[in-house]
Amino acid sequence: MSDHQEVNKLKSTKQALTYPYVGAVEELVFQVLGDDVIEVDSFARYSAERRNEGSCLKTRYRRFEPDKLDRVVVENYKIRGHDGLVVNAYTKPEYGIPIFTLQVGGSGPDKTLVIVDIVSTNPATDQEPVKSLYREHEEKAGFSGTDLEWVKKITSGYALVNQYRSIDPAMMYEAISAYLTTWLKRYYKPAKKIADEETIEEVTGSVLQFKSILHDNDVGLDLYEKNFNEKMLDTIEEVAFGGRPSLPSNNQQDTQNTNGGGSEGGESHSGGNWTENATNYVNQAPAFVRGRIKKNAEEKAKEEGLSVIDLDLIDTLR
Length: 318
Description:
Mean pLDDT: 84
Low-confidence stretches: 1-7, 249-270
Number of domains: 2
Structural class: alpha+beta
Largest sheet: 7 strands, antiparallel
């Protein structure tokens, strides 16, 4: 299919958008990723369903395993009569590709849930393409943002989130298409193997943290646990996450790296003196973004000729 035909096909699909949008968005995912990432004839599938008293709970997972990714998981679900779609693409640690994450669902046109993001797993990853997408689409599409702390913990700061409000479906579709295409062309396709073991370990930890937080806050898993047997739940967790993800009981090494002496005047890092509030901000951020926050803040301080890194400087990086 030529680029012109592809654009016309996407436009045709976009014009046909009706709530719950799941079918059109799923088609978009397969159109954009199909040739390079998703082999539609090669995947593992698992489904579970329970019907009682006129209600239906069902889920279907498809797991794809491209060369550079640990897995791409596509879930279709129906909960309390409402359809939803979840897509997560997880890198193999040796490639350090950002996580692509997408969720579309809700309980009506005026209560639509959308989350789409490109989440860095490697502090060296260039986030400028994602920043540009966010600036272009956040206000134009009318994304409402979120007050859910767990969503804030796993997203990049440039996530487009619509938390159960109405949204322009055509603009939503355009934004999701842009994030998908950027992830594919700017991150997935150019990715090369990483040689540095420390970076690979950091990528591994970033993916694990993302999976763990997502797992612990997935309402669907709670419902599946109540309605399906333990063996079914174990299978769902294996397909979706590669097993039940769990983090170490503490992040002692990371805390030592960012919160040393805790002196009243702040901590000294390689890039200058950090105020106590700025250090606390880094420690409270998700583990997989702490390195990037520190690196960007120290580079900014150096550019500006500042000897102290405080919250005001960090705010300029958002």
